[in-house]
Design goal:
With 479 residues, this protein is of the alpha/beta class. The protein has three domains: 3-80; 91-306, Vaccinia Virus protein VP39 (Rossmann fold, 3-Layer(aba) Sandwich), CATH 3.40.50; 323-475, Alpha Horseshoe (Serine Threonine Protein Phosphatase 5, Tetratricopeptide repeat). It has helices spanning 8-12, 17-28, 37-51, 56-65, 71-80, 91-108, 126-139, 157-165, 178-184, 238-250, 288-291, 323-335, 348-359, 363-376, 381-393, 397-410, 415-427, 431-445, 462-475; strands at residues 114-120, 147-154, 167-168, 185-188, 191-194, 202-206, 226-229, 257-260, 273-278, 281-286. Strands 6-2-1-7-8-10-9 form a seven-stranded mixed sheet. α14 (363-376) runs antiparallel to α15 (381-393), α16 runs antiparallel to α17 and α17 (415-427) runs antiparallel to α18.
């Protein structure tokens, strides 16, 4: 095979291609590519062409001969991984850190006056720098004289170099108030450079979450008060995730905190931890007692954050439903020949109280409140969506499907309901139906701007939901 004529189709037909792909997954943990030959082969051709290697066998030998320093594996990792991220991503998580986690850690660590944080899978550094900004601005007066360490690690050395530079384009600030950006960054041409004071606590180092040891005294990856491992495990196999979560458990002291991405799958792998439910986010706290429980012990009953989207933030006072929902409901009802009732007929405190009850883990009561609300407001798609979220957490998945279908019937443009129905059907093994829902989601998203927020979907933009939806489509057998 001539290097200049390499194509992903020819490469995936190479007899040594399966061995090469297995080697890559085994050494990186990126099981996401296990059934994505087109995507992986397309990136693989770039590295093979750069080295002028004609076939998979020769490239595999190059990887194996380079195992000691791993330079070529790093190059391949840099080619296949994506570093898209932004500051203060998922603001509810940072609210939870500010309001609960950091006050707890500062109180408990007063004696030693030390704080150790690990940002695992830090990409280009937005997450650890966000933590540093939050600590400096909100708790700097309490941390004066403390030894604060924020260790940020990633498998992509190019990302780490960019993170150390601390230079970012405007897109990385799409969730950052202008006041924060202007106070913590300096304009440099078309980019922004982080102020040195927010770099002094942060250090970056290479770490492979699958292969490298953890806890590791040698690499100073141990004894953390808080570990953030967000949106990383979605690329790993379930066995790898279970092993990693146990390693993270042993890298924390008693009562240490773990924050994972709110779209991370399979909540049962976190059963060694105590789940702490907060508005729009869930955290895990190391519990020595829980570690001693039998393996069949169920995790904490209410784990909304592991659904791709939790309830939208509760309103502190009555407010009118956003216009896009009112318009969508009106259009939907007009198509059915009915009269549209205004959304303000449903006081938002009712929905807010349902969320609050659910966040406290009282699912039975939350379900009853939803039912009472729907008795009065049968034509409210958002109420049906809330009910579906509660039902899913109660394990009543068939009823969850029905509630989501009702929400979609009332509002065909209810994007997040389409997406969520696809997730439920995917979990139930209904691949064709799930695929249809995800394609509907993409069709609805196609008319939105990339940075446009999705109603009832926290702070996710259209671009991010497209990426998540496409990932689920790629994981399904194509009809």
């Amino acid at each position: 095979m001539n290097p200049v004529s390499l194509t992903r189709h020819a490469l995936s037909g190479d007899p040594d291609y399966p061995r090469l792909k297995d080697y890559f997954i085994a050494h990186t943990g990126l099981a996401y590519y296990a059934d994505k030959d087109d995507q992986f082969a397309s990136q693989l051709t770039k590295r093979m062409a750069a080295l002028e290697l004609p076939d998979c066998a020769s490239y595999l030998r190059a990887l194996q001969s380079d195992e000691i320093d791993g330079t070529e594996l790093d190059n391949l990792i840099a080619t296949v991984t994506i570093g898209e991220t932004f500051f203060f991503r998922h603001h509810e998580a940072f609210d939870a850190l500010r309001d609960v986690v950091f006050p707890d850690l500062i109180r408990r660590n007063q004696g030693v006056r030390k704080l150790r944080i690990w940002s695992a899978g830090c990409s280009i550094g937005a997450e650890p720098y966000s933590i540093a900004i939050l600590l400096k601005r909100d708790f700097g007066h309490l941390l004066s004289g403390w030894e604060v360490s924020i260790i940020a690690t990633d498998i992509n050395r190019d990302f780490l170099d960019r993170a150390r530079l601390g230079k970012y384009e405007d897109w990385a600030f799409r969730s950052v108030p202008e006041e924060i950006k202007s106070a913590c960054f300096t304009r440099s041409g078309n980019a922004w450079v982080i102020d040195p004071q927010y770099k002094e606590w942060v250090s970056f180092q290479y770490h492979n979450l699958i292969k490298d040891p953890c806890p590791s005294l040698r690499n100073q990856l141990d004894g953390f008060d808080l570990i953030l491992c967000r949106n990383v495990t979605i690329y790993f196999s379930q066995e790898a995730v279970r092993n990693l979560v146990q390693e993270l458990y042993f890298s924390l002291p008693a009562d240490g905190w773990l924050l994972v991405g709110h779209a991370e799958p399979n909540v049962d792998v976190y059963r060694s931890f105590r789940a702490v439910n907060l508005p729009g986010a869930i955290l895990y706290q190391k519990s020595v007692e829980k570690q001693a429980e039998p393996a069949q012990t169920s995790p904490e009953p209410f784990t909304f954050v592991h659904q791709p989207f939790a309830f939208p933030p509760a309103q502190s006072a009555p407010s009118q439903r956003p216009p896009d929902y009112a318009t969508a409901q009106s259009a939907s009802l007009e198509r059915k020949g009915g009269a549209a009732r205004p959304f303000e007929a449903i006081p938002s405190p009712d929905l807010a109280s349902i969320r609050q009850i659910a966040d406290q883990g009282d699912l039975d009561r939350a379900a009853r409140c939803c039912e009472e609300l729907l008795e009065k407001e049968k034509l409210n798609p958002v109420a049906h969506f809330y009910y579906a979220l509660v039902l899913e957490q109660m394990g009543r998945r068939r009823e969850t499907q029905e509630s989501l279908r009702r929400a979609i019937y009332l509002d065909r443009n209810f994007i997040i309901a389409h997406y969520y129905l696809g997730l439920i059907q995917q979990r139930m093994g209904e691949a064709k139906q799930a695929l249809r829902c995800f394609r509907n989601t993409l069709n609805l998203l196609s008319g939105l701007k990339e940075d446009e927020p999705i109603p009832a979907a926290d702070e996710f933009s259209a671009a991010e939901l497209k990426q998540l939806t496409q990932m689920h489509i790629d994981a399904l057998p194509q009809a």
